[in-house]
Design a protein that fits this description.
The complex is a heterodimer of chains A (423) and B (177). With 423 residues, chain A is mainly alpha-helical. Chain A has 15 helices and no strands. Classes of the chains: A mainly alpha (423), B alpha+beta (177).
Chain lengths: 423, 177
């Protein structure tokens, strides 16, 4: 019992330490990528303190952290003090607790560690059968942190940020759930280790076998992590700072770390659910838990490289696309992502139900091709039937339509084709 | 406003085609642009180690200098045109009868408050004898407010410092000395 507790504590220490350092350095990476995309050099001055060694600016996170710690813990007089303090704690605690069920590697070799009589799983709580439900439940708690912070701040910007965030997170949890259900159907398990195991044993990542689910999940995780183009909860240009407008010092850094942890969680989930987790052909071996040290380390490295690549994609995406307007955000969730998620779910369910028949008729490649075809057709249909763009530019015909509506005593609607079209 | 008003020039935005409606192609083209810039050349100048290139020093508006003539006398004739033109009221001149026969007055004291100056270049334009000029020195620093109020000696020393690199603009531009 004691040994297991110590093992769990060591894993937790490794994970929390790694995540906190990771979050700090991802802030630096975020600033670097922002700079490079804008043809700047980015932070490259802070190195080892008290020396002139610059180290490409790798000391920046330390300076940022110190700045936050020594900042004044300003609490505005009009806030609800208890909730104001509780909100950042709850969001950070929930963001960290998710990692109990997320594997950060595979296993260590049998008898590889002296003094341990069982095989060490690189996951804090191995073998939890409701892993995905637990993860989903905790990631929903993030909404509480955001809306509590928005409400307790007693400020209009914060409240608007909190409201937007709650609407957005709840809307995007549905397509996200549908995409995850597709994975669960194919795996037959809710354990994230098992999801990786199935992908490793077949050698087919779920991103290949259900592309539609992959796209939906990536889009939904962007929205869940409140990253651009879905960062409406904290749209600087509109809401100052969104739900953390009134925060400063340590409480603010809790929010900021929680935001980065959400992004890291999203990357873990994309990598584990759809990109094979620690699996890579030819390096990591099959799904066997009987691994050599080389394979065990290769699995950790492969998983981390995938996560790093996804995070870089997250950060590049930030500078590639403009933010959605709120109605566009909602219509994307309810009119595009939700139907597409249902299509994916039905396709996967049919595939699982009739697998033997389909396999004998189409072959496994044929099944994959069919899934891709379904994805293409569904995507094009969604694009034509429920266009994301609502055209409200100042066209002459729109203007005439609007003027007519005014003459008839009606409210000038969202003008243009949308006035007669799907809107 | 009537929509069919002849004065109104309607510019039609192109409508989105099928690729636009599919959204993903546009997303990837956006990503391609950012990726290109990610690895592209950087515009930033690492300042203290590397000096930025100033396009044309003749039209750059940096720290002021007071020009001297061939005999090393200050060119200023204390006409107060620069002080009058200055929108920030940062030029303070005390005139005195000139010790030299070629002019009536000269400036006994000539101070420019560099903290108040907005570097608009009006003084340079107003000066009838090309005495006050703006150089291309831009990294102007000081440890106190007093230090940033440049008096006549300091302005003349700026001329001595910059005269080789930047000859007097009027001469370069073809005026008589």
């Amino acid at each position: 019992m004691l040994a297991i507790s110590i093992e769990a504590l060591i894993k937790i220490a490794l994970l929390v330490g790694g995540l906190m350092t990771g979050a700090a350095y991802f802030v630096l990476l975020e600033r670097w990528i922002a700079a490079w995309v804008q043809d700047r050099k980015g932070p490259n001055r802070v190195g080892i303190p008290l020396t002139k060694i610059k180290l490409f600016g790798l000391g920046q996170p330390l300076a940022d952290g110190l700045k936050f710690i020594f900042k004044e813990e300003a609490t505005p007089r009009h806030v609800d003090k208890v909730l104001f303090t509780l909100a950042p704690i709850s969001i950070l605690a929930a963001a960290l607790a998710i990692y109990a069920v997320i594997p950060f590697g595979s296993v260590l070799p049998k008898d590889g560690v002296p003094g341990v009589d069982h095989q060490i799983n690189l996951i804090v709580a191995p073998g939890i059968d409701v892993g995905m439900i637990y993860m989903f439940a905790l990631s929903s708690i993030a909404v509480y942190g955001v809306i509590l912070g928005g409400w307790a701040s007693n400020s209009k910007y914060s409240l608007l940020g909190g409201l937007r965030s709650s609407a957005q997170l709840i809307a995007y949890e549905l397509p996200m759930g549908l995409a995850i259900v597709g994975v669960v159907l194919m795996t037959g398990s809710m354990r994230l280790e098992e999801v990786i195991g199935v992908q490793a044993s077949t050698g087919t990542w779920f991103a290949f076998s259900q592309p539609l689910g992959f796209v939906i999940f990536v889009v939904a995780s962007f929205a869940e992590a409140a990253r651009l183009p879905f960062d409406l909860p904290e749209a600087e240009q509109e809401l100052v700072g969104g739900y953390h407008t009134e925060y400063a010092g340590m409480r603010l850094i809790m929010y900021l770390i929680a935001e980065f942890l959400h992004m890291i969680t999203a990357s873990f989930l994309i990598a584990i659910l759809f990109l094979g987790g620690w699996h890579f052909w030819g390096i990591t071996g099959g799904s066997s838990t009987d691994v050599t040290w080389f394979q065990a380390i290769a699995r950790i490295v492969v998983l981390n490289v995938k996560i790093f690549a996804i995070i870089v994609f997250f950060m590049l995406a930030r500078w590639s696309w403009p933010r959605f307007r709120f109605d566009q955000l909602m219509s994307l969730a309810w009119k595009v992502m939700l139907p597409l998620g249902l299509v994916n779910l039905v396709a996967v369910a049919c595939l699982v139900e009739y697998q033997p028949v389909l396999e004998s008729k189409l072959g496994s490649l044929g099944i994959t091709a069919a899934m891709w075809a379904i994805a293409f057709v569904a995507w094009i249909a969604a694009g034509i039937l429920a266009p994301l763009h609502s055209d409200n530019s100042a066209r002459k015909d729109n203007f005439v339509l609007d003027a007519e509506r005014r003459n008839r005593g009606l409210r000038p609607g969202i003008a243009g084709p949308s006035a007669t079209g799907p809107y | 406003m009537k929509p069919d008003d002849a004065q109104v020039n309607w510019v039609e935005e192109p409508k989105l085609g099928l690729t636009g409606k599919m959204y993903l192609p546009l997303i990837f083209s956006g990503l391609a642009v950012t990726t290109k810039h990610l690895f592209g050349p950087k515009m930033t100048v690492s300042f203290p180690e590397q000096r930025p290139e100033i396009g044309n020093p003749l039209i750059y508006r940096g720290v002021h200098r007071l020009n001297k003539d061939e005999q090393g006398r200050v060119k200023c004739v204390a006409c107060f045109l620069c002080a009058t033109a200055c929108p920030a009221h940062c030029i303070d001149i005390i005139a005195a009868p000139s010790p030299w026969p070629d002019r009536d007055k000269y400036c006994e004291s000539f101070t420019i408050d560099e903290l108040r100056c907005i570097f608009c270049g009006m003084c340079e334009e107003a000066c009838p004898v090309d005495a006050v000029e703006l150089t291309s020195l831009f990294d102007l620093t000081g440890r106190s407010r007093e230090e940033m109020i440049f008096d006549k000696e300091k302005l003349l020393s700026v001329y001595d410092m910059t005269k080789d690199a930047e000859p007097m603009k009027s001469r370069v531009m073809g005026a008589s000395p």
